[in-house]
Amino acid sequence: MQTQYFQALNEKLKRVGNGQPQLILDLKRFKHNIAHILSQWPQHLTPRLVVKSLANLNLLKLTADEFQTKAFMVFHLAHIRPLYYLIPDADMLLGKPMPISGVTALLKEHSYLATQVHWLIDSVSRLGQYLALAQSQQLQLNINLEIDIGLHRGGFEDLVQFQQALTLIQHHSKYLKLTGLMGYDAHVRKLPKVVFSPIKAFQKSQQRYQEFIQIIEQFFPTIDVSMLCFNGAGSTTLHHHFIQTVCNDLSFGSLLLKPLDFELSVLAQLKPALLIAAPILKVLDHIQVPGLEKFQAVQPKQQGICVYGGYWRGEYVYPKGVQPHVLFGRSTNQEVLNISNDAAVDVDDYVFLRPAQSESILPQFAELYVNDDSDTFKVWENLRE
Fold it and tell me: Among 123, 207, 212, 369, which residue has the least CB neighbours within 10 Å?
């Protein structure tokens, strides 16, 4: 992002912004990222959008339309109903196992959601809880089993326990229906290369995934396994699955906004599309550290600013030299920032920060301000958790 880009956005915010910290979506960059991923997408694989990473119904609808998908991965029970009302035939897979108390409360009031969701199960004991719920409410639940393919963050790792879960499903088919597997492979990018190269780590995870599929084929010989949901991937490993995968359903989301944590060589063709803009409340010609006034003469002159809000997870990127002041510390109310002495700023100008993640930032802001070629911003309401 060039200086001219931020200058133009700063002027637009001063004209039509709301004078508060705003979360900005660059629509042109976002659509560029969609087009790039679409150009590589194998037609036989189902795109599944990660709702927490794109937690805005307008954003999800736009992306789903572009990818021609109705498959979503949901990480918060509070997101299920809004997504259902937006897309009544949405196919929702939970991205983490949910406590039985939350699921019970949801289905007690909204039993029609039972068949809209693939309920993620990570253990035999949790499967027993869901079976009891299904029996008590006379429902049949779609069951997706979380498998450990190398990440070691829970899920079925022991094949004996996995077979016990399949047996339970088999014996209670009135209440439980196996709909697939979910195996997350984020470790592929995080393992030290001296241990495994990303390619070898990915291949090993795929071999492990295939072992679980083969057990399903043995337990359910009449099932067409190609009709089950074998979910995998994520923004950092998606490209591996494009080459070869045992999965038929791939999750992604963050890479379309490309926050700072996704500044990776494998995503170099994608553009950052999400920014936080915060108004400058005060411009300080010379930052003075409290308690050190008598040393003012020997303190190096450092220009500073106070902004509306602060302490967001990410990095300030504009104006030149902007960074949190070390001695003042961080503040969520009125953060003191250093800027370059030759940076020309004034009160009511904006500073810009690139978030580290989209999923941690979107719920902090009520609205997403969509920046395109028009003279105003479209305002889209974000999902809350």
Answer: 207
3-37 pLDDT, tens digit each: 999 999 999 999 999 999 999 999 999 999 999 99
What is 232-276 written as a DSSP string?
EE-TTTHHHHHH--S-SEEEE-GGGT--GGG--GGGTTS---EEE
98, 79 in Cβ contact below 8 A? no
Which amino acid belongs to residue 384? R
Element housing 293 (H / E): none
* CATH (residue range 3-23+271-381): 2.40.37
Burial of 186 per CB tally in 10 Å (0-12, 13-18, 19+): middle
Give the number of other Cβ atoms within 10 Å of residue 189's Cβ: 16
> Do 279 and 242 form a contact (C-beta atoms < 8 A)?
no
Tell me if the pTM is above 0.70. Answer: yes
CATH number of 27-259: 3.20.20.10
**3-class DSSP state for residue 55?**
coil
Answer whether 156's CB lies under 8 Å from 122's CB. Answer: yes
| Closest to 77 (Cα-Cα) out of 56, 57, 107 | 107
CA 348 to chain centre: 31
pLDDT digits (tens, 9 = 90+) for 33-56: 999 999 999 999 999 999 999 999
Residue spans of the domains in the chain: they are 3-23+271-381, 27-259
**Secondary structure E strands in 9-78:** 22-26, 46-50, 71-74
The CA distances from residue 142 to 52, 172, 340, in Å, are 21, 12, 57
The pLDDT of 222-251, averaged and rounded, is: 96
The pairing of beta strand 304-308 with beta strand 274-284: antiparallel
Cα(281)–Cα(185) distance, rounded to whole angstroms? Answer: 44
List strand residue ranges (DSSP E) for the chain, in order. Answer: 22-26, 46-50, 71-74, 91-94, 117-121, 141-146, 176-182, 229-233, 249-252, 274-284, 304-308, 314-318, 323-324, 334-338, 350-355, 367-371, 378-381
Same CATH topology for 3-23+271-381 and 27-259: the answer is no
Per-residue pLDDT, 188? 85
Region 200-207 average pLDDT: 94
